[in-house]
Amino acid sequence: MSLNCGIVGLPNVGKSTIFQALTSAPAEVANYPFCTIEPNVGVVTVNDERMDKIAKLVGPEKVIPAIIEFVDIAGLVKGASQGEGLGNQFLSHIRQVDAIAHIVRCFEDGEVIHVLGRVNPKEDIDIINLELALSDLDVVLKRLQGMDRLFKSQNKEQVVKAKISKGVLEKIKTVLEKGEPARSLILDEEELESIKDLNLITIKKMLYVCNVDEGAILSGNQYVDLVRKIAQSENAECIMICGKLESEIASLDSVEEKEEFLKGVGITESGLKTMGRAAYKLLGLCTYFTAGVKEVRAWTFKLGTKAPQAAGIIHSDFEKGFIRAEVYHCEDLFLLGSEAKIKENGKARLEGKEYVVKDGDVMHFRFNV
Predict the structure, then answer these.
(1) Strand partners of residue 6
(2) pTM beyond cutoff 0.85
(3) Fewer Cβ atoms within 10 A, N terminus or C terminus of the chain?
C-alpha cells in the first residue's frame, strides 16, 4: 500500500519545481502557464529514522523504505470546471489520487509571472477550491438525478443503500453550492462508503504547501500566516517549503553535502522530508517492519488494520493462510539491542487474527496455504 498524492495549484506557483526536487524525476519547468499537461508521476521514499536504527542492529543485506507516489498535475485556472485551460482533463487526474497537496505561492518575484498578475494566496486558494467544488457539484447533481429508479428496485438492500446515499449527497450538495469542500462535513464510515465510487475531489484530505522564498524559510511571512489560518478553518494541514532551495539540495550528490547545505541555511531538515511525513500522516497511514538478515523493510498500513490484513499487504497468500504473527515493538529492540534479548525479556509475542497492528511493530508471519 502506498500513498498517492496529487500536487495541484494555479500555474507558476512552483509545483513542477517542487516535484522535480521531490522525486528527481524530470518535469518540464517553464515560466509560462500549462507547461505541464500530462501528469508526471514520481515515487519517493518516506524517511523513517526507526528503520535506520533497526537496520543498524539487524545488519541486513538491503533496506527497503515505505514509499509515496506524487503526481504533478497541471495548473488549474478560473473556469477549469467548465473546461477552461484544459480544466476538465486536469480535474479527471485529480479524481484518481488519494490526497491533495495544494501548492500556494507565498513569495514575490517580478521575474516569475503570476497568472493573475499579483500574489494573493487567499484569492489563489479560493479559485482552486471553487473550481474543485463546482466540479464535484456537477458529479453530485448527475447522481441525484438518476436515483429515482433505484427506489423502485425490488431489491430491498439496494433501496436502503440508495436512501443512505441520497441523504449524504443532499448534505454534500448544500456545502458545495456554498463553494465549501465536502470534507467540511462530518460523515461516518457507512456514509462515506455509500459515495465512495464518485471519487469526489473535495472529500479528499488536503495539505496546503506554502512555497516561500529563501528569506522566509525560517520564520515565514504574512502570506504563510494567511494560508495557515485558511487551513485551520478547513481542518486541513499546512506546511512551508522553499522550492528553489529544495531544487538546489536535490542537485547535490552526497548526504554529507546535503547536510552541510542545510546547516549553512540554518535549517535542520529538508522541507521535502517534512512534506513526505505530512502526506503520510494525512491519510492516517502507519508503518510496520519486517526485519531479517536478507532485508529490513517498511510496510504501510491504515490505523485499525488487523494482523491478517497486514500480512496480506506483503502477499495475498499470507492473509489467506494466516496462522499467527510473531510481534515485538521496535522501541523494545532499540532498548534491548537484539531479537535474542527481546525474547529473553519476554517482549516478543504471538498474536492471532484479532490483533490490531501498531505503528512501529516488527512482525514475522506464520501462514499455510
Answers:
(1) 71, 100
(2) no
(3) C
Triad 220, 223, 225: Cα angle to 5°: 65
- Which cell goes with 210? 506554502
Contacts of 92 (CB under 8 A, 6+ apart): none
The two most distant CA atoms of the chain are separated, in Å, by 70
* Whether pLDDT at 47 is above 50: yes
Helix H or strand E segment including 227: helix 222-233
Query: What pLDDT sits at residue 6?
Result: 85
> pLDDT at position 35, please?
37
269: left (phi over 0), alpha (psi -120 to 50) or beta: beta
What is residue 44's DSSP assignment?
Answer: E
> What is the CA 232 to chain-centroid distance, rounded?
18
Residue position matching grid coordinates 489563489? 124
At 157-196, the pLDDT tens digits run 777 888 888 999 999 999 999 888 898 888 888 889 989 9
pLDDT score recorded for residue 320: 94
Distance CA 225, CA 134 (A): 27
Residue 28 and residue 20: Cα distance in Å, rounded? 9
Q: How far apart are CA 274 and CA 334, in angstroms?
A: 24
Residue 268 identity? T
| pLDDT bucket at 267, cuts 50 / 70 / 90 | confident
Alpha-carbon span 196 to 182, nearest angstrom: 12
Please enumerate, as own/partner, the contacts of 31-34 that have beta carbons within 8 Å and a separation of 24 or more: 31/111, 31/112, 31/113, 32/113, 33/75, 33/77, 33/85, 33/113, 33/115, 34/74, 34/75, 34/85, 34/86
Residue 255: how many CB atoms within 10 A of its CB? 8
pLDDT score of 350 = 96
DSSP string, 179-205: T--GGGS---HHHHHHTGGG--GGGSE
The helix (H) or strand (E) run that includes residue 93 is: helix 87-95
Cβ neighbours around 86 below 10 Å, total? 15
Spatial distance between the Cα atoms of 359 and 362, rounded to a whole number of angstroms: 9
Please give the pLDDT value at position 155: 76
| Cβ neighbours of 266 (radius 10 Å) | 8
